[in-house]
Amino acid sequence: MKYLKFKNSDEQVAIGKMVCVGRNYAAHAKELGNEIPEFPIIFLKPASNVIYSGDAVIHPSYSNELHYECELVLYIGNDVKNANDKEAENAIQGFTVGLDMTLRDLQNEYRKKGEPWTLAKCFDTAAVLGEVVLKKDYKLNGTEKISLSVNGATKQNSSVANMIFPPVEIVKYISARMMLEKGDLIFTGTPEGVGKVVPGDKIDALIENIGSIKTNII
Ligand code: ZN
């Protein structure tokens, strides 16, 4: 079982499901040749995929295109179903930075065949997490910068203001379809600039006022 790491709290919270939003930044949808979605595109990752800042991402041998995706991650702090605006806002109890590691070659193959993306998104070490900042310590203002560099060169540099579906809308949309529980995480999508990493590469990811991640590929 994997547990969240909090800044300023020793609370033990097991990570539940990780719900991820695809194509939530218009410029990223475009760079992969996709249309801007009318509704959030949702997929899941299992908690067993989690590693933390400082750990290494293990490049699967069956892929030739491992991509990074830097994302704002929402921490769900109470159970919620069919949330309205206020309930959605209350359910988001914290924030962290996350990497949604993706096997792009497999994802493209599955998309072409109309098959589920699962194995392109789910593999051991496919989700890298920073420390969770609780909302009582920091309230998202919606304009935080989000950036990622590989070996010191900036690859992603945007703002969470560029999300198509903001956090409250995402929580409302998901909770109308499946219950969210304390310990669940929501990956809110990545801005443009995704790209390939290979063993030996070092990644630094940062969300302004929220936190950072350091990892390397082995
Ligand atoms: Zn993603």
Describe the structure.
The longest helix is centred in the middle third of the chain and has 10 residues, at 104-113. The mean pLDDT is 96. The protein has 218 residues and is α+β, with helices and mostly antiparallel strands. It has a single domain (18-217), classed as Fumarylacetoacetase-like, C-terminal domain (Fumarylacetoacetate hydrolase, domain 2, Alpha-Beta Complex). β11 (145-150) and β12 (153-159) form a beta hairpin. Strands 1, 2, 3, 6, 7, 9, 10 and 13 form an eight-stranded mixed beta sheet that branches. α2 packs across α5. Helices cover 17% and strands 33% of the residues. The structure holds zinc ion. Zinc ion binds next to loops. Residues 20, 69, 71, 100, 187, 189-190 line the site of zinc ion.
Would you spell out the secondary-structure blueprint of this structure?
Layout: E1 18-22, H1 26-31, E2 41-45, E3 50-52, E4 56-57, E5 66-68, E6 70-76, H2 85-91, E7 92-100, E8 102-103, H3 104-113, H4 118-121, E9 127-129, E10 133-134, E11 145-150, E12 153-159, H5 167-175, E13 185-187, E14 195-197, E15 202-207, E16 211-217
Parallel strand pairs: 1-13, 3-9, 4-16
Antiparallel strand pairs: 1-2, 5-8, 5-14, 6-7, 6-13, 7-9, 7-10, 11-12, 11-15, 15-16
